[in-house]
């Protein structure tokens, strides 16, 4: 049982590159992990299974290379896939970015509840989009403090993961 990182939906850059968390918001998350400077966990893919609540890029009509918050109907249509991912992976921790992701994860965890012996710990952060900075700054004194909170969380998760690996090797 590992860790899962959940976003709201792929942004335009991530959708185009076919690699999750590579747009401006994703790069902030990646930088936070790089600041840990752990030799084994150099990138998000090394630490997390990564997914999104909505599986395709939502864009405003007529502006395909822009981003928008997923609609409720899109979340409803896709949450069953997140439920299945959580059932298969049985993560111990889920890190969610954004209100839509946090709500989608809460719903998926509830729907997947019967398949887990212990429900996963869910850690929710605001979506790190540049257009969401005002919201972030109501919870953190600066964007640097927000990024530091992410780095600290990643450090804690790595310490726990490494401790479990050590215990497994000893048994």
Q: Can you put this structure into words, describing what you see?
A:
This protein is an alpha/beta fold and 171 residues long. 51% of the residues lie in helices and 11% in strands. It has seven helices and four strands; from the N terminus they run E-H-H-H-E-H-E-H-E-H-H. The chain has helices at 12-17, 24-34, 44-47, 72-89, 99-111, 133-139, 143-170; strands at 3-7, 49-52, 93-97, 121-125. It has a four-stranded parallel β-sheet. The radius of gyration is 16 Å and the shape is globular.
Outline of the structure:
The chain has 171 residues and is α/β, with parallel strands linked by helices. It has helices at residues 12-17, 24-34, 44-47, 72-89, 99-111, 133-139, 143-170, and strands at residues 3-7, 49-52, 93-97, 121-125.
The radius of gyration over CA amounts to: 16 Å
Number of strands: 4
The order of strands across the largest sheet is 2-1-3-4
Structural class determined from secondary elements: alpha/beta
Looking at this protein, list some descriptive labels:
single chain, 4-stranded parallel β-sheet, globular, alpha/beta, 51% helix, 171 residues
Task: Summarize the topology.
Elements: E1 3-7, H1 12-17, H2 24-34, H3 44-47, E2 49-52, H4 72-89, E3 93-97, H5 99-111, E4 121-125, H6 133-139, H7 143-170
Parallel strand pairs: 1-2, 1-3, 3-4
Helix pairs in contact: 2-7, 4-5
